[in-house]
Amino acid sequence: MADTLIQADTATEASENQANTSIAARLAAFAESLNPEAIPRAVMERAKYLILDAVGIAHASTRYEFAHRSLSAASELSANMGDMPVIGLAARLQLRDAMLMNGILIHGLDYDDTHVRGVIHSTAACFPTALGVAAHAGLGTQDLLAAYVVGMEAGTRLGSVAKGGFHQIGFHPTGLVGAFSATLVAGRLLGLNARQLAMAQGIALSTGAGSLEFLNDGAWTKRMHPGWAANAGFTAASLARHGYIGPKQTYEGRFGLFASHLGQDAANIDLELATAGLGKEWETSQVAVKPIPACHFTHACADAASILHREHGLKASDIKSVRALVPGEVVKTVCEPVATKKRPQNSYDAQFSIPYIVATALVRGSFGLLHLESAALADPEVLDLAQRVEYEVDPDSPFPKYYSGEVIVTTHDGRTLRHREQINRGAADRPISGPDIEKKFMDNMLLAVSRSRAEQVRDLVLGMDTDMRARDLAEGLAARG
Predict the structure, then answer these.
(1) Considering the chain, what is the average pLDDT of its residues?
(2) Is there a single domain that holds both residue 330 and residue 414?
(3) Considering the domain boundaries, does residue 283 fall inside one?
(4) Same domain for 57 and 173?
């Protein structure tokens, strides 16, 4: 009997030692132990500007139908109860419903930031979680910022492991991986220890979700992915806090995240990226702010087409045919199915369409929110040109380091005009500066509020690293009743 107990104890110890070296355990240790003072000042500044960008987009989203239909559902889920504010709206919801709404608003226009290598919209899940849980727990905005950075560092690395593979299978990393980053954000703010934080990630393995099926018909489901991830993260952290048991090998296990969601493509992953440079190299600084309200995979081609328009004064009637060179890994997202990409069924469909975006930029000289309005989507000149836009896989693409793009125009008079954007605008090596982010923020805010109100919100967000309560920030971001 004693020998049996010794063997059992030895097996338990071996199992625990294995778990302590797991990716989940390493991320948990980082989340628990990170001292806010150890985060470089430049990283904290960048974090504030990424949040500022998200807040501006959320306000702009309040003008659209999807926001108000979402709010109707969230209010019903909250049973018209709750005291948690919502960004840009006067509603009061229960905590998880408020996080869901804030995620929808930030991600709803597909204008929010992207970590290029991880192919993930990290802020859209991390900030709603940090804002909601910190306000709920009575914490300060310095706690909120530190937890936000924890989530950003973890989520971007986990997304990077797959090397763009999730998209090839049909999963959206923002919803899927976002559940794990949100878990660490919520867990840190709830005071979980490293063991509980590791367990919480195991629980989150059964909650993360995000299908790319919306690409076939422009459905609204992608908009809810980061808010749902925030809900999943808070739920997982709360269960772990109360002793609920989850699996230990969350990421590298036989049915862990990558094996279960990538199948045979899991052979191409690099698990070392999940924790490489953690606490020394800061992926938050590598997050790209979007200059164009569309899928990041389309940006280089959109810019290339706009430049060709400006340089050559192109009109649709001048153009015989167009070729758009894109990374092979993005074809399923922004080039297929061809029929709907060439004639988008709605604004969301258009945001993931190389033919429509390239045609718009060639004819109108730019691509912005205006080109997602109903009148623009029905523009016969643009739609006619979109039928002449074909895609080709770019053999020289540096994906996923950059989302390159090239547009080649053949004119009726026999000219061949081309422009290439090797590094997409907004990427870490071609960043959008703080003043540029402020301008984008103001442009988005002014769609919904007065300039004085926009300036007030800007100052509130950029002052987050001072002695402020997270609850006061949440109240300050909500619409005035």
Answers:
(1) 94
(2) yes
(3) yes
(4) yes
Measured CA to CA, the distance from residue 184 to residue 187 in angstroms comes to: 5
Measured CA to CA, the distance from residue 198 to residue 25 in angstroms comes to 5
Cβ–Cβ contacts within 10 Å for residue 225, how many?
Answer: 28
pLDDT at residue 9 in the model? 47
Cα gap 45→23, rounded to integer Å: 28
Per the DSSP assignment, residues forming a β-bridge with 478 are 87
313 and 277, same structural domain?
no
Structure token digits, residue 259: 């094996």
Are 30 and 150 in contact by the 8 Å Cβ rule? The answer is yes
Let me know if residue 281 belongs to a domain: yes
Among 116, 82, 119, CA closest to 100:
82
Question: Do 418 and 412 form a contact (C-beta atoms < 8 A)?
Answer: no
Considering only residues 1 and 201, tell me which one the structure prediction assigns the higher pLDDT. Answer: 201
For 196-218, letters b (16+ CB in 10 Å) and e give bbbbbbbbbbebbbbebebbeeb
Residues 22 and 145 in one domain: yes
Separation between Cα atoms, residue 335 and residue 248, nearest integer Å: 39
One-letter amino acid for residue 153 of the chain = E
- Alpha carbons within 13 A on the beta-carbon side of 390: 5
Residue corresponding to tokens 């500022």: 52
Tokens (6 digits) for 76: 């019903």
**280 membership: H or E segment, kind and range:** none
Q: Which residues pair with 419 in a beta bridge?
A: 407
Range of the domain at 343: 296-421
**Position 481 confidence tier, pLDDT thresholds 50, 70, 90:** low
Report if residue 452 sits inside a domain.
Answer: no
- Residue 467 confidence class, pLDDT cut points 50, 70, 90: confident
d(CA 275, CA 318): 52
Number of structural domains (the chain) is: 2
β-pair partners for 140: 469
Nearest to 185 by CA among 115, 258, 224, 132: 132
Q: How far apart are CA 443 and CA 249, in angstroms?
A: 45
Task: Measure the CA–CA gap between 324 and 394, rounded to whole angstroms.
Answer: 9
245 & 361 share domain: no
* pLDDT reported for residue 20: 55
CATH number of residue 343's parent domain: 3.30.1330.120
Q: Distance (Å, rounded) from C-alpha 434 to C-alpha 432?
A: 7
Closest C-alpha to 98, from 136, 61, 60: 136
Q: Which two tokens stand for residue 382?
A: 């643009």
Instruction: Indicate which CATH number applies to the domain containing 75.
Output: 1.10.4100.10
Residues 337 and 356 in one domain: yes
For residue 5, is it within any domain? no
Residue 69 is encoded by which pair of tokens? 């239909």
Q: Which residue matches tokens 């804030």?
A: 102
Task: Indicate if the pLDDT at residue 318 is higher than 90.
Answer: yes
Residues 278, 157 contacting (CB under 8 angstroms): yes
Between CA 324 and CA 356 the distance in angstroms is 11
